[in-house]
Design goal:
This protein is mostly helical and 414 residues long. 78% of the residues lie in helices and 0% in strands. It contains 24 helices and no strands.
C-alpha cells in the first residue's frame, strides 16, 4: 500500500476529530488538504463547502459547490450535480448562475420539466429588472427544450413585441391573437406588407376572426384590389352583429362608398342600444381623420340619446369626439348645447373653453373673444378663463392690426 492513501485517511481522521470537538476552522483546514490531495473526493468536497457555509463564509461555500457541480457534470453525474446546485440556492435563493447550471444539469439528466422551470425563474428575475433581451435568451432555451409544455413560447412572443424585436416576435406568433397583435405593431412601425400577411395568417388560423377579415377587405379596397377584398368581404363578415356591421360601415367609408355606408349606419343606429353605441364609437374613431363625415355619423347616435334624455351617453360621446378633433367647432357647439340642456354646467364650461380655443385655431377671433368674456364674467377668479381671455384679446388685436381698413385706437393696445 502506498503512503498517499494512508496520509489521506490520516488527514480525514484528523479533520473529523477536529469537527467533532467544535474546531471548525481547524477542521476546514484539514478537509481542505484532503480535497487538494483527492480532487475527485466529492463527499469530502461537499462537506468542506457545507462547513464554509456553517462558519458564515457563504461566498466560499457557493464557489466550492459550483466547482463541485462542474466537476460532477464533467463526469456525467448530472443528478448529483443538480443536488449540489440546490444547496447553492438554499444559500442564495434565485442565484442566476446556479440556476443556469442547474437547468443544464437537469436537462442533461433528462428532467426537462425541472430545467424549464429553472430557466423560467431566470427569465422572471430578468424581467423584473427590465433586462428583456436577456430574459428572452432564457425563455428561448426553455422553449427549445420543451416548445409545448414549458409555457415559454407565449411569454417569448409578448416580450419580443414589448422590446420591439418584431422579427423575433414573428417566429413565436403561433395563434390568431398573436398574429393580430403583431400586425398592429408592425402597421405602426410602417411595415405594412408584413402586417397584412400577419392578418391573413390570423384569418387562416381563425376563420371566425371577422375583425381581421374586415380590415383586410378595407385595405384591399383602398388599394383598388377588389378581387382580394371580395375574398374577405363575405356575408359572414357583415352579418347581424352591431360591431361587425360598424366595421363594414368603416370599410365602405374608407373605400369612398359613403352612399352605402351612411344608410347602413342610419339603420344600425335605430335598431338597438348596441347599434347606437357602435355608430358613436365609429364616429369618434374617424373624428380626427374625417371630421365632417364622422360628425354626420355622430348625429345618428346623438338624436336617439337626446330624444331619450340619455345625457350621460350623449355628453360622453361628444367629449370623445371633440378630444379627437379639438378644432372641429360644430361638434363642440353641439356639446355646449347638450351640456346646457342636461344642466351639466361643468361640462358646458369645459366645452366653451374648447370652443374658444377651436375658434382661435380657425381664425374666428370675434367668436372666441365673446366666449372667453362670457366665461370670465361668470368666474373672474378662474386662472384658465383669465388666460383664455387674454389670448382671445391678443389674437383679436393682431387680426385688427393687420386689417388696413380698420383703425386701431391706442387705448385698445393696453
Amino acid at each position: 500500500m502506498s503512503a498517499k492513501p494512508t496520509e489521506h485517511a490520516t488527514t480525514l481522521r484528523t479533520a473529523e476529530k477536529l469537527l467533532r470537538v467544535g474546531k471548525i476552522a481547524a477542521a476546514i483546514a484539514e478537509y481542505n488538504k484532503v480535497v487538494q490531495q483527492s480532487p475527485a473526493d466529492w463527499d469530502t468536497a461537499i462537506l468542506l463547502a457545507s462547513l464554509h457555509a456553517r462558519s458564515g463564509d457563504v461566498n466560499t461555500a457557493v464557489k466550492q459547490y459550483r466547482d463541485i457541480a462542474t466537476g460532477l457534470t464533467g463526469q456525467r453525474l448530472h443528478a448529483r450535480a443538480a443536488n449540489v446546485l440546490e444547496k447553492v440556492l438554499v444559500l442564495r435563493p434565485g442565484d442566476e448562475d446556479a440556476l443556469e447550471q442547474l437547468a443544464g444539469a437537469s436537462a442533461a439528466n433528462g428532467d426537462i420539466a425541472a430545467a424549464c422551470s429553472h430557466l423560467m425563474r431566470i427569465a422572471e428575475r430578468r424581467i423584473s429588472r427590465g433586462e428583456i433581451p436577456r430574459a428572452i435568451d432564457a425563455l428561448e432555451r426553455a422553449a427549445s427544450l420543451d416548445p409545448a409544455g414549458s409555457g415559454a413560447s407565449g411569454k417569448l412572443f409578448d416580450l419580443c413585441v414589448q422590446s420591439g424585436d418584431l422579427a423575433r416576435g414573428r417566429k413565436y406568433a403561433t395563434n390568431a391573437r398573436d398574429c393580430r397583435t403583431l400586425a398592429a405593431v408592425m402597421r405602426k412601425a410602417g411595415e405594412l406588407t408584413e402586417a397584412r400577411e400577419l392578418l391573413r395568417e390570423a384569418f387562416r388560423l381563425d376563420p371566425a376572426d371577422l375583425g381581421s377579415a374586415a380590415t383586410l377587405a378595407c385595405e384591399y379596397l383602398r388599394d383598388g384590389d377588389v378581387d382580394q377584398a371580395l375574398e374577405f368581404l363575405s356575408p359572414a363578415v357583415i352579418g347581424d352583429d352591431p360591431a361587425t356591421r360598424a366595421a363594414a360601415i368603416d370599410l365602405f367609408l374608407h373605400a369612398g362608398r359613403s352612399d352605402v355606408a351612411m344608410p347602413m349606419a342610419s339603420v344600425l343606429a335605430t335598431e338597438s342600444s348596441d347599434g347606437i353605441n357602435c355608430v358613436a364609437e365609429l364616429a369618434c374613431s374617424l373624428a380626427n381623420e374625417a371630421p365632417d363625415m364622422a360628425y354626420s355619423l355622430a348625429e345618428l347616435a346623438l338624436e336617439p340619446w337626446i330624444n331619450a334624455q340619455a345625457w350621460d351617453s350623449a355628453i360622453a360621446a361628444l367629449e370623445l369626439f371633440t378630444a379627437a378633433a379639438p378644432a372641429y367647432a360644430p361638434a363642440i357647439v353641439r356639446l355646449v348645447e347638450v351640456a346646457v340642456d342636461a344642466d351639466r354646467l361643468d361640462a358646458a364650461d369645459r366645452a366653451q373653453e374648447m370652443l374658444a380655443s377651436a375658434y382661435l385655431t380657425n381664425g374666428e377671433f370675434a367668436e372666441a373673444l365673446h366666449i372667453a368674456q362670457d366665461l370670465h364674467e361668470r368666474d373672474p377668479r378662474n386662472a384658465r378663463f383669465e388666460a383664455l381671455l387674454q389670448r382671445a384679446r391678443q389674437a383679436s388685436r393682431k387680426a385688427a392690426a393687420h386689417d388696413e381698413s380698420v383703425i386701431v385706437p391706442m387705448r385698445a393696445a393696453r
